Amino acid sequence: MITDQNHSPALDIDAVRAFALVAELASFTRAAQTVGMTQSAISLKLKRLEERLGHRLVERTPRSVRLTGDGASFLTRARDLLAAHDRALNLQDAPARRLTIGFSDHVLGPDLTSLLARISAFDATLRLDVRIGLSGDLVDAFEAGELDAVVVRRERHRRGGETLAEDAFGWFAAPGYRQPSGEPLRLAMLAAPCGVRNHAIRTLDKAKVDWVEAFTGGGVTAIAAAVQGGLAIAPLARRIAPPGLMDIGPHLKLPSLGKSSVVLYARAADARTGASLRVLAAAFRGMTAA
Fold first, then answer.
1. Are strands 149-153 and 162-173 parallel, antiparallel or unpaired?
2. What percent of the chain has pLDDT over 90?
3. H or E stretch including 133?
């Protein structure tokens, strides 16, 4: 236990930042990837911070990382310290950095709130501009220099990018949905040229399953509403399917939709923005692995 606070060395700002990252990402590995360090280096910094404070901040098991009571209490002060430190370094009142990110509507699900919170917690000075759209349109905008980063579903003709997750797909419907015997499969889908739509249609046509587009939505939120209302079924990633829906593909003997890769395309104008993008990637991996 540290007893003489007046003559103790100052807190190591890098150690405080390492702790905040471990807390936000719930992973030593992802925190290390974010700042380009080894996992052992992150562990050492956190150990020295705990020794400096005289308190255990993190409980670590082979399967999880969670904050202790002291860790949760210190996290708020750590964020305040990091924000003050970053403001102090900005002596020239440089223009605020802006990061423009595009997210595919078929990728987001419930994760956007947590993703934005974690980026903001890492760098409160960053100004975020978020666009939602179709994967193909977003990648085109990225390649044209209109977006700094996009998180999208990999399309068959696209290469490159950093894989963040592999999503399994299914045919989702409300629990009470009944497919009329002898009638075409009623589908709810985004309008063309949605890649998920195209894949679903190709899969059904290949299996010679008759279908009809019963509902066309301008976003996944609208698709989910139609499905929850019993209008039709929809091809959705299991991760983003709203609670309460069920995959009725096996029951109707529908062909498997397989899996789809979620990828990040990004460019960073400076090291700090690059670190924010690594936080985004690590946070997304963490949530999809949970």
1. unpaired
2. 42
3. strand 127-133
CA dist., res. 221 & res. 224, Å (int): 5
| Residue closest to 208 by CA, chosen among 184, 186, 177 | 184
Burial 248-280 (b: 16+ CB within 10 A, else e): bbeeeebbebeebebbbbbeeeeeebebbbbbb
47-92 per-position pLDDT tens digit: 999 988 888 999 887 777 888 988 888 888 888 888 777 767 665 5
Token pair 């009470």 in the structure block, residue: 176
- Taking the model in full, what pTM does it have? 0.74
How far apart CA 285 and CA 290 sit, in angstroms, is 9
Name the residue type at position 49.
Answer: L
Residue 7 identity:
H
Name the 3-class secondary structure at 127: strand
- 79 to each of 66, 88, 139, 272, how far by Cα in Å? 17, 14, 33, 16
Burial-class residue 160 by CB neighbours within 10 Å (0-12, 13-18, 19+): exposed
Per-residue pLDDT, averaged over 136-146, amounts to: 92
Q: In whole angstroms, what is the distance from residue 69 CA to residue 61 CA?
A: 16
Tell me the C-alpha to C-alpha distance, in Å, between residue 235 and each of 65, 205, 216: 34, 14, 13
Per-residue pLDDT band at 4 (split at 50, 70, 90): very low
